[in-house]
Amino acid sequence: MNLFVDSFGIYTVFNGTNGVACGQSLRNRWNVTNTGGQIFVQVNKGNRGNPGLQIGFGGGIGKTFPHRSTYIYGIRVDMSCDSGVGGGSEFVSFFNNNQQLITLKINTDGSVLVFGWGNSSFFDVCASSGPVVSAGVLTYIDFHANVTGLTVLTLNSEVYVNGTLVASGSVVLDRVASSLTSLKAEFNRIIMSSGVATNGQCYISDLYLNDDLGGINDTPIANPNIKIDAYPLPNADGSQLDWITDSGTIHYLRVNENPADGDSSYLHSTTNGAIDSWGWQDLVTLSDTINAVQLTLFGRTTDEGNLGVQGTIGNHGAEEQTQTFGLNNDYTYHHQSFDLDPNGNILWTPPNFNAKEFGTKLIAV
Amino acid sequence: MSILYDNDFSSFTVGDVPPYGDLENVSVVQPRIAATIPGIYGDANYVTMPSLQALIYPHINPSTSFPAYTAFTLFAGMRQGQTGVDQEGTILTVNSNLNPFAGATLLTVNINSDGTFSAISANGGERAVSDFSTYQEKWWMFQISCQFSAFAGTLLCTVKIGINGVTIINSALLSNLAVAGIPATYWNNLILGGSAGGSQMGRLTIYDEIIDIGVNPHPGTPEARVSQGVIELIRLPGTGPTPVGGCHIYEA
Questions:
Q1: Exposure string (b/e) for A343-355, b if CB count within 10 Å is 16 or more?
Q2: Does the beta carbon of A6 lie under 8 angstroms from any beta carbon of chain B?
Q3: At a CB cut-off of 8 Å and minimum separation 6, what does B179 contact?
């Protein structure tokens, strides 16, 4: 089941002087950005001319997800530093809250090392490879990790580079599940660091996170041709327009700016059940496979009292909904991914995607 | 239902230290009224909270003579932490100073390093951890409620936590605290704390009974706003023909 994707196409892009705004934009969807190194969204640093997330030496960014015993994580990375490819420092780590359990790093020669974090040893090797990543070259990495056990924790991992399995293995930690914050063998948090030494950085794009539940999107995608794009531009009003524009009469124009502009243009409502739906850009390549579709809304509420929103998928009278997201006083992103087209629980196809309206529904929670 | 405490701190002056009515200071670093950043829901004032136990209700010196209750619901407008600072801290302890429980903590609610929440029953009893996490430096409306009861001779905490009206924890947590010899399992004081890096509290209302998550007994006139809609998808390229047309960004 897909838990999250990030195209890095919706944040404020760093222009040399707007670092604060860029960081705030990221923190509307990511939990923590370490201030020890530079973290910016940079234009053209992802694949296909997309923006990419730059993490400089000493920087890190994290996000929490549902507790799961298995995470399957994919990212496209362009990494280099004075030492070589990586600097041998931590690159991607899976945590149980604040307890680090497993880490992927890329060494100076481009080899991959996965290690676990025991009580008495911090470098319990789980899997490793020879040189497989080149400096300064966009490379797709799938990192599949699983943690099990009660009295001892066992880690299993696989690493795919550009679709090829390059490392796999397991390791037993001298650590018990009851020592973890959730008291169970499971992950709930990912932190990405630069993975490099000084005078270096990595650029990240095309990010996905799956678990192993649900029977779909439960294995590594392991395909370097994967594309995770943002389509943040509704381009037409839909079939139901219950919300109110802050200005003008055209609804989709209030929610189609990129990056988001908050209270500069928005739709608003106080009516429980009110739906506003919008037409979306069409996919042009009708033979593509769509693994998952994630709908994200950027919303807030203005006063105390419980208001939430749901994302809607489908046309008037046939909408399916996301979970309910409670709105807080500050704007934040609320997202949910769908492995299947919820209108019929069938695999997504470009024609079906193109025919859909997507929107928002107000819920008095 | 009755309100035990209700305050948006608007009647105080910037720089004021506790007491704020029946909310008193328990910290070496005193909380203070501030108005440096925009408050919650357009309020001017809020309380700055140190990363310690900070404020106690109803009095700095808990007493067996204070009223006691079997349940509570707390609404708090909170803004947690600083960017890049580990958030971990205890934001609430619910305590009993009734004999023979002098100083016993019945329930602890922590915010964890990653912004998730833990509820832990007395004496290291059972624990529930949320999937949901808050983002730092944003205002959130917390709702925490608990019904205390006895189960098989020990304290049982039936706790619910909601954020912005959505349930994130709903668990019955058995404690390691025996309840034999007392007439009931009561709380008679609670202590609020800040997360690491400090917190701000904009509004606080405490009730003496359970209020379901999603119910706000004294709402304002809220309006929902949506400023952006985004679709992101995972695609694997096919081999068929590529139709011409459409308006796309970030597709190559």
A1: eeeeebbbeebee
A2: yes
A3: B150, B153, B154, B155, B185
* A215 Rama sector, left if φ>0, alpha if ψ -120 to 50, beta otherwise: left
**What 8-state DSSP symbol labels residue A355?**
H
Look up the pTM and report it. 0.94
Provide CB contacts within 8 A for A355, sequence distance 6+: none
Q: How far apart are CA A80 and CA A91, in angstroms?
A: 12
Q: Which helix (H) or strand (E) holds B119?
A: strand B117-121
pLDDT digits (tens, 9 = 90+) for A115-142: 999 988 778 999 999 999 999 999 999 9
Decide if B174 touches A, using CB distance below 8 A.
no
Contacts of A365 in chain B (CB under 8 A): 164-166, 214
* Cβ–Cβ below 8 Å for B162 and A326: yes
β-pair partners for B78: B140, B201
Contacts of A48 in chain B (CB under 8 A): 250-252
pLDDT at B102: 65
* CA angle in degrees (0–180, nearest 5) for A365-B5-B7: 80
Q: How far is CA B238 from CA A225, A231, A287, in A?
A: 10, 19, 5
Q: Which of residues 83-102 of B touch A (CB under 8 A)?
A: 83-84, 86, 88
Region class of B87: left (phi > 0), else alpha (psi between -120 and 50), else beta = alpha
Q: Within an 8 Å CB–CB cutoff, is residue A143 touching chain B? A: no
The torsion defined by the Cα of A6, A8, A10 and A16, in degrees rounded to 10, comes to 160
pLDDT in tens, B104-127: 899 999 999 899 999 999 999 999
Contact B225 A329 (CB under 8 A): no
> Which tokens go with A133?
């990543």
Q: Which residue has the tokens 């090829």?
A: A164
- Going by the DSSP 8-state scheme, the letter that residue A24 receives in this structure is H
Residue ranges for chain B with pLDDT beneath 50: 240-252
Q: Any CB–CB contact under 8 A between A268 and chain B?
A: yes
Token output for A192: 């990405």
CA distance A309 to A323: 8
**Interface contacts A/B by beta carbons within 8 Å:** 332
A238 touching chain B per CB within 8 A: no
- Confirm if A93 and A104 have CB atoms less than 8 A apart: yes
Is the reported ipTM for this assembly greater than 0.90? yes
Task: Please judge whether B113 and A182 are an interchain contact, meaning their C-beta atoms are less than 8 angstroms apart.
Answer: no
Q: Which residues of A touch B77 (CB under 8 A)?
A: 304, 329
For A283, residues 6+ apart whose C-beta sits below 8 A from its C-beta are A290, A350, A353, A354, B235, B246, B248, B251
What sign results for the dihedral spanned by CA atoms A48, A51, A57, A62? negative
The alpha-carbon gap from A351 to the nearest alpha carbon of chain B, in Å, equals 12
